[in-house]
Records
---
Amino acid sequence: MRLGGPIMEGIGTPEEWVYLHQKYGYRAAYCWIHSISELNTKKDFINAAEKHDIMLAEIGAWCNPMSLNPEERKKAIEHCKEQLFIADESNTKCCVNIAGNLGDKWDGHSPENFTKKAFDMIVETTRDIIDSVNPKRSFYTLEMMQWMYPYDADSYLDLIRAIDRKQFAAHLDIVNTINSPLKYYSTEEVIKDCFSKLGKYIKSIHVKDITLSQEMTVHLSEVIAGKGNFSHRCLVEEVRKLDENIPLMLEHLSTKEEYIEAGEYLKKFF
């Protein structure tokens, strides 16, 4: 199995980078290259990752390519293309972004996010990003979200079929799709549904947890892995059955200690 997460410490050399990943039991890593100009200066790190069997799992684009502001949308799409290019050049498994929001907040919700207009815009934009870069090794992926496409396995399949590009694949963040009490108490079924429908497309997975409060009406909160109701045992079992090289990436924690705690919890299922 390949666990990964951010390194919450200063890194000066490729040897330090490798040491810290090995120290925390990480066999996968986030790609930390922030611009095309950095590619040449980071080649020693890329080579060190390959030499020590540390998979570069994903690089984030994290912007809104569906912005209602034309200049912001153009800038975001160019950023996605640059990040996908970096992913391909560094042999990072995938570039991941959200599909985008037809509203004010870049990663927020709006009434048009589930419309045909939104779906068609995602298809057009994603094709443009992939066709412009023409990646050979890496894949462009969209993180599953609770209030935009793709919001579950079926909507992801719809996008995969509509986009129709070999280098478009799936990034799983299953906790993001747990958006009701029914799903909260059925996480194993949700996990198995994702793997049964998206299995051959999955390139990277975010790992976290979720709790449901007793407060009206419905309040769901993201928490550190092991502190909620998500079935990580089932997740690891599905990864093991499909491909043990699919990276499981910790995220959204605040301290090194929290990442260590979450990592040790997950390792119990490996």
---
Amino acid sequence: MDKKTILIKNIIIGVMLAVVGVVLTIQIRSIRIAKKEETRRDAIKLQELNQQLTSLEKEMQVLKEEYEINNSKYLELLNELAKNDSSFYETLKTYHDNISEMKDNAGLTEVTGSGIVVTLSDSLVAGDEYTSGSLVHDTTILSIVNQLKLAGATAISVNDERILAMSEFICVGPAVKVNDTKLFAPYVIKAIGNKVMLETAIKNSNAVTNANVNINISVEVQNEVTVPAYNKNYQNSINLLKNFEG
């Protein structure tokens, strides 16, 4: 290959490399410009969102102040009507009493009163082997809860889960699910009501009288038992119950 051909070949390669370099430079600059533009748009969008947030916070503050003013006027009007209209006062009092009673019956309020505390736990038999009768099952807890209800308990909880008409008892491995919450032994059942009747109900329950049941069970009568309020969403519990029932 003569020198002229080599020179031409080198020139062609040089031109190609130069073109590639130019193309790469243009691409890199285009990418940088696109990123800068994207960053600029993001900054503008963020600024707009911050402005909207500030505007909404101011609007919320105004609405809050208006609510407080209107609520104050509402309470003043109620008090004025209650003072000057005895029939309105009686209607209002009945309304509030009914609301409070319905909340109590629905388990939406914490309740304190005399009652009993029942503690259930698994029991080991000889050889440190578990048998079905030595385990606390969901059916065992449900049976005791039903006995307490029949004995007139006004409020019941299991491991601080308030028991309602819709509360489910489902065995989930080593746990029992109540109100869609997994509970583990020991199971502490609190009940408010007539102490004598509640204690008698437990002593006569299947968990105590059944010879095939060998769990640990203790009953403590107390002058002051506190059963917490139901802390779940009512609609979710209703849906869960419907699903459980098929």
---
Amino acid sequence: MDKLLKLLDTNARLTTAQMAAMLNTTVEDIEAKMAKLEQDGVVRAYKALIDWERTDRECVTAVIELRVTPKRDYGFEGIAETVMRFDEVESVYLMSGGYDLLVTVNGRTFKEVSMFVAKRLSTLDSVISTATHFVLRRYKESGVMFLGEQKDERGAF
């Protein structure tokens, strides 16, 4: 299973036939394993990693540190569930250290993201403080490099 997960993490567009050949097994075995991984919630989604700087779409990303007061009987889960339901929120992580939750937010402009933090996020009952850091440039994300031109790694003939 671990090898299959690594293949999916590297390239989720591989066909079941390609994965079966790479893992020296059958297409039926791969299909069964993938169905089980999806059913068990191990594989949550298949998603393209897009370099928005190469498009004409405006996109601003911010990483926000949240200090919160955990809710009685819910711990951090209650506030995390509230935060992750906002459409602008890309990800939410429980952290150790100087703050409690790390939130990644996407918007069209710096002002849009700032207004989201000021009017919707920081006003939540459990939020003690926020610290917003705007992403100025992505160099690498999910193991994929964004700096420079993409090289064709298929090899020359």
---
Amino acid sequence: MEERQGVSNHKVSFVGRSNGIITGVKDVLSFDANEIILDTEMGMLMMKGMELHVTSLTVEKGEVKIDGRIDSLIYSEMHNGKKQAEGILARLFK
């Protein structure tokens, strides 16, 4: 994946709250029918909804395709481009 210095290749694009493509994905941390957690270039991204499916994962491109009903997108906190220790996963495992 080509990355310009200082510019992220992270992009989130959804059509009708049901089909989406997310780029700049480093890893899929967890997923089930109600929640998907991704590690992206911009921090942890948690998506909540119903009947969520990861339909495609292209590791080389850092791209994930998702379908289902998307209700919310939540990013973890970031500080100077780095994830803080008190991110989504840290809060989940307290």
